[in-house]
Design goal:
The protein has about 220 residues and is an alpha+beta fold. It has 3 domains: about 70 residues, PDZ domain (Pdz3 Domain); about 70 residues; about 60 residues. About 55% of the residues lie in helices and about 10% in strands. The strands form 2 sheets. A 4-stranded antiparallel beta sheet has the order 2-1-3-4, with helices on one face. The chain has a two-stranded antiparallel ribbon with strand order 5-6. A hairpin with a 2-residue loop joins strand 3 and strand 4. The longest helix is centred in the middle third of the chain and has 28 residues. The two termini are about 20 Å apart.
Amino acid sequence: MEAGIESGDVILAVNGVELDNFPQATDFFIEKVQNSPNQPLEFTVRREEQTFPLTVTPKPDDQGQGKIGVGLIPNIRLRQSQNVWDAFSYSADAFQNLATLTVKGFWQLISNFAENAKQVAGPVKIVEYGASIAQNNAGNLFQFGALISINLAIINILPLPALDGGQLAFLLLEGLRGKPLPDKLQEGIMQTGLVLLLSLGVFLIVRDTFNLTFFQELFQQIGL
């Protein structure tokens, strides 16, 4: 990558400050990059069995915040539980951290949609990320799968037509009005929402497919 960071790299420290606790480490890293446009940052990176320093200079985006063009996945170390309750406690903490990170990601997407819309990934991109993670550390696929599941759960409860959240919104309106919305109105909203969601899915699949490395190299060879 342009920043010098490769898939599977683990960032251990930024400007001498160690990143060892999640999600505080992720928040610190993102804030440090966003607040340092055109300012070099000294990363300590672990790649496979090697640890080395790396200087990265974030580029300013349209809002003037720094970015380095990489995606983050928390580097959560698994530990051996001493008993069943310890396992439940650790699992609950890990779930809460991942859910918090997911909600923050959705908020950043909504609050700065124009800048972050390009980062929305469809099934093709998710498979590509999964394959890349499996090549570096297959054990991280469990964490990646949990992250995808939490994302889907949160999306499903959003008050959007054709999703469970849309049904909950209809029930809430029914409770407030004392009677349900007309059937034709509900069907029209659900059908419109379903068409929009399917259209978005097809668009993401086509876009991510043409953005695959294979197609990019093919287009370069034929001069497109």
